[in-house]
Design brief:
By secondary structure, the chain is of the alpha/beta class. Among the domains are: 5-103 and 311-373, no CATH class; 395-473, AF1104-like (Up-down Bundle); 490-656, Uncharacterised protein PF01937, DUF89, domain 3 (Rossmann fold), CATH 3.40.50. The protein has 19 helices and 21 strands. The protein has helices spanning 76-86, 104-118, 176-187, 192-200, 211-215, 245-270, 287-301, 316-325, 399-411, 413-422, 430-450, 460-473, 490-497, 511-516, 536-547, 551-558, 581-589, 600-605, 625-630, and strands at residues 36-46, 57-70, 123-126, 134-136, 146-151, 155-160, 166-172, 209-210, 229-231, 275-279, 306-310, 336-338, 365-371, 376-377, 520-525, 562-566, 579-580, 594-598, 615-621, 638-643, 653-657. The strands form five sheets. It has a seven-stranded mixed beta sheet with strand order 4-3-11-10-5-6-7, with helices on both faces. It has a six-stranded mixed beta sheet with strand order 16-15-21-18-19-20, with helices on both faces. The protein has a four-stranded antiparallel beta sheet with strand order 1-2-13-12, with helices on one face. Helix 3 packs antiparallel against helix 6 (245-270) and helix 4 (192-200) crosses helix 6. The longest helix is centred in the middle third of the chain and has 26 residues, at 245-270. It catalyses: (R)-4'-phospho-S-sulfopantetheine + H2O = (R)-S-sulfopantetheine + phosphate.
């Protein structure tokens, strides 16, 4: 069971359960529904408050934020006490999955659809003996159809064909409850996690009868290796000895997992489905469980079908219950994004492999998601959307690169804190909040050293996004809003423009050069602040002011040949699979045949290897010596990468990402 819950600030419960910090659940009193905080406050900018471009005032606006907490049934009393104290007998609260009972399978599938659509790198393949045990999958834009194997007390198998169409096509009474029940009888161990810990230390071959125990080796005629299990618990019937708890638990785990794996394979082949997702309390991120199921699937399908697991499988029912309760608000009309600052992330439960891993019992796992103001879609010009990978280097698999970039981000932390404080000079508590940011982000970096898979594939982009999320959590939406000027003659230049015009000016330009050629230009800039990148709101002001002085820009705006559109991102990097839907529409309507991507974040850290169905330019100066060396160049090397797909004639329309 994974009930979602809120925990109020300064609320204590003496029930041996670790509470999240006070910051986790902001503005609880404003929540409309159990599991969603409707009015978490964020910062936005009012450009009309000042004449100066970067003297912008801060105002409060509301955004929707989902909070989920997952914990064991042993702590259900704490959950119920919390509901009683904070959510019952109030007019604005609606409780789902507890008071209003919802169909479990329907909720699970709604939750599964939601995470697959909204969380990149949600699904992964588990490879126990690989350098990187978690191999995250690129999500196909079309997530359907798929098979969902939910392993709870028993097993339910559903074929999911669309958002609203699914069918339970099979199941079994032999599931997680069987493992737990028989395990308790065999080992006298009552706790599920302890049973798995026993299994992780056991040798199943002490209890199971293997092929080689019968034939003296492999059975080549049938293609059976000697180490294959011929009979689960087969040796216990003839051996005159006591078997260890560890060995019996391991044998039992193999027996249950192999049975479920074969059942899933048969249904996948029967219904011609290649995507099979496993979830339920039997999984719960346990490496041993995922390994045994993966082995079973690989064996029975000869590698044709992969066992796929979900980072947030423990939250599916709670998410689905929320979605069913919020249908009048139509939550699926928006895109949602995982907030790394407020989420626990995927955690291995192997203390030997990951010494920082906390014990799960008595603690919360958390998931926090923010509703975005716009729908995010693929760039229509991606050549193969299903195989598009934004990031150039996967730090999850590249250990030297991971160590270098984690060091870089930690080394830069003091500077970020100083900029955050400087961005809010009139707020005396800014230094305190900045210190909390420092502690939070440093803890995230330390966690990622041991658990680089926590939020999917670890990349430079995800490290930047995590930093932005942590800054926003402590109300630093734009640390660069007060930008330092090395040389500031701006006011003198404005005064000079009030005087007589120059006779002739030589301008070295980029975008207006395209306009002069008759090319339509779409400027796609960030929707929200990130580092010192220009935002769409700022670009609107800049463009209007430039148009007053530049006839090319002025005519471009007037004739609708120059269009400014937000890209849907608040990151210094660029994920072309998650762009503002309005931008995608403009790209189609303008029949865009040239894409220009500029800057290290957008053209090097991401999209360096991206293939488009039109001509493209990727432009950057490499300002990092390690990255320059990795790419085979030198510091400050210039990248001017022009790519032309075969058989695509030019139509003179461009999208630029400043």
């Amino acid at each position: 069971m994974a009930p979602p819950s809120h925990v109020a600030s300064n609320h204590t419960m003496d029930k041996s359960i670790t509470l999240p910090p006070d910051e986790i659940f902001r503005n609880l009193e404003n929540a409309k529904r159990f599991a969603i905080d409707i009015v978490a406050k964020v910062r936005s900018f009012d450009h009309t408050a000042s004449d100066k471009l970067y003297e912008i005032s801060v105002q409060e606006e509301v955004t929707a934020r989902l909070h989920f907490i997952k914990f064991e049934n042993a702590y259900i009393e704490t959950c119920l006490d919390f509901i009683k104290d904070h959510l019952v007998n109030t007019e604005t609260k609606v409780i789902k999955a507890t008071v209003d009972k919802e169909d479990e399978m329907s909720c699970l599938i709604k939750g599964c659809n939601f995470v697959l659509k909204n969380i990149p790198h949600e699904a992964f393949v588990y490879a126990k003996h690989a350098d990187s045990e978690f191999r995250f999958q690129t999500t196909d834009p079309d997530i359907f159809p798929y098979l969902l194997v939910n392993i709870g007390s028993g097993v339910s198998i559903a074929k999911v064909e669309s958002e609203d169409k699914f069918e339970r096509i099979g199941g079994s009474s032999i599931g997680g409850g069987t493992f737990w029940g028989l395990g308790a009888l065999l080992t006298k161990t009552k706790r599920f996690d302890e049973l798995l810990q026993l299994a992780s230390k056991g040798q199943h071959s002490s209890v199971d009868m293997l092929v080689k125990d019968i034939y003296g080796g492999s059975y080549g005629y049938l293609g059976l290796t000697g180490d294959l299990i011929a009979s689960s618990f087969g040796k216990s019937a003839t051996a005159d000895k006591e078997f260890s708890k560890e060995d019996m638990a391991k044998s039992l785990l193999h027996m249950i997992s192999n049975d479920i794996g074969q059942l899933a394979c048969l249904y996948a082949r029967l219904h011609n489905l290649s995507r099979v997702y496993f979830g339920g309390f039997f999984i719960r991120g346990h490496p041993l469980t995922m390994h045994t199921i993966t082995y079973s699937i690989n064996f029975f399908t000869k590698g044709e079908v992969q066992a796929l697991f979900l980072r947030h499988e423990g939250y599916l029912g709670a998410i689905g219950a929320f979605l069913k309760g919020a249908e009048e608000d139509n939550p699926n009309q928006y895109s949602w994004g995982e907030n790394y600052a407020g989420s626990s992330g995927l955690m291995s439960v192997s203390p030997d492999m990951y010494p920082m891993q906390r014990a799960r019992s008595g603690t919360f796992d958390m998931l926090e998601m923010d509703r975005l103001d716009r729908q995010l879609v693929n760039l229509p010009l991606l050549q193969e959307p299903s195989s598009y990978i934004p990031d150039t280097v996967d730090l999850t698999e590249d250990a030297p690169a991971r160590e270098y970039w984690l060091f870089c981000f930690e080394d830069a932390l003091d500077g970020v804190v100083k900029r955050a404080v400087a961005s809010q000079p009139d707020m005396p508590e800014a230094a305190v909040r900045a210190e909390k940011f420092r502690q939070k982000y440093r803890h995230k970096l330390q966690t990622l050293r041991y658990q680089p898979f926590a939020y999917g594939s670890l990349t430079v982009r995800s490290l930047l996004d995590t930093r932005e999320h942590c800054l926003n959590e402590f109300n630093f939406p734009d640390p660069y809003s007060k930008r330092p000027w090395l040389v500031d003659s701006y006011d003198q230049w404005l005064e000079r423009l009030k005087g007589p015009p120059h006779k002739c000016a030589l301008l070295f330009v980029d975008n207006s050069g395209l306009l002069s050629r008759g090319t339509e230009v779409v400027l796609a800039s960030n929707s929200g602040p990130a580092l010192n990148d220009v935002t769409n709101g700022e670009l609107q002001i800049l463009t209007e002011r430039i148009a007053a002085m530049d006839p090319v820009i002025q005519s471009g705006l007037r004739d609708d040949r120059l269009t400014l559109v937000q890209n849907g991102s608040s990151s210094p990097c660029l994920d072309l699979s998650r762009l503002d839907k309005a931008l995608a529409m403009v790209v189609r309507e303008r029949k865009t045949d040239l894409v220009i991507i500029e800057g290290m974040g957008r053209a090097i850290h991401t999209n360096y290897f991206a293939t488009l169905s039109c001509e493209s330019l990727k432009l950057a100066v490499i300002k990092n010596s390690w990255l320059a060396d990795r790419l085979g160049g030198k510091l400050f090397s210039v990248v001017f990468k022009y790519e032309v797909p075969a058989g695509k004639p030019s139509q003179e329309a461009a999208v630029l990402t400043p």
